[in-house]
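FW: tagging you since you asked about this chain on Friday. Here's the raw sequence from the shared folder, copied in full. Didn't touch anything.
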Amino acid sequence: MKVLVTGGAGFIGSHVVDRLMALGHSVVVVDNFYSGRDHWRGRMTRPEIARVDILDKKAVAECFQAFQPECLFHLAAHHYIPFCDRNPGAAYELNVSGTLHVLNAAYESGVNRVFFASTADVYAPSPRPHMEDDAVGPFSTYGRTKLIGEMICRGVSDWGWTPNLLIGRLFNAVGVRETNPHLVPEVIGQIAKGATELRLGNLHPTRDFVDLPTQARAIVDATLAVEGIETVNIGSGHAIRVADMIDLILSEAGHNIDVTFDPKKGRASERSNLCASTKRLETLIGYAPEPAGRRTIQSILDEAKQQAMETADVVAR
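HL: got it, structure written out here
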């Protein structure tokens, strides 16, 4: 198929693109490169790239008409929670208005299969793994924008459009190519800079940290399998404390560093648990993504070392 991926140069999007190309699909990346990069520069197998901002409704429509994709993966968004909370106008504009532009263009060009990247942050807090029918109750700007996006997706039949559409509620992705200072890259970045003490936010919450390459595989496989409109958690189904993830990072990095709580890094509102029930996903595709483990962390450490070497080379010149 010819597949269009918005936000395809970003963190999760680029891994989705890799999976699609590995399956032999023809991929078009639509991205404004605000934070994404061309990860395929110099490679023999690479996607087509359209430098388009999804807030430009006309450009988005022209892109769909030019490429005529059969399938859409919509991942372009502001998704860093602190940024969205500080910049609610920008978050609503991109995550809601941008989504309308993309979905309308997909409808007008006859796309028949769609993935919409939502988030586990739409759920109301709960001490147990979240099931897709659980109550929603986001308390971040990001979660609220994504819940509106879900409502738009469920209403496309009002337009006379009946695509096979997967609303994927993504849990905490961990992997290379991160574009925002989430927990794991923040810790590894501090280590790479020679920190002797880690100053972090709340260490007690539990999170479903997911190995990103296997999460991307699940995103693609579930989207290609879904019939009708369905909402599915895309997590590993295993949660650990933030403190335990930090211990894993320090162990893999071979460092013994003091970790202290920094109130400035804590969020005003913090849920104590976030874990996926993966029963619906496993029914759909037969498996769930892997939890982020030693292999995942080592890949990020290797990436950080490579970036440090490249920076040193630039400075030396």
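FW: The domain at 183-206+239-274+292-316 is CATH 3.90.25.10 (UDP-galactose 4-epimerase; domain 1).
HL: agreed, and The first strand starts at residue 2 and ends at 6.
FW: great, closing this out.
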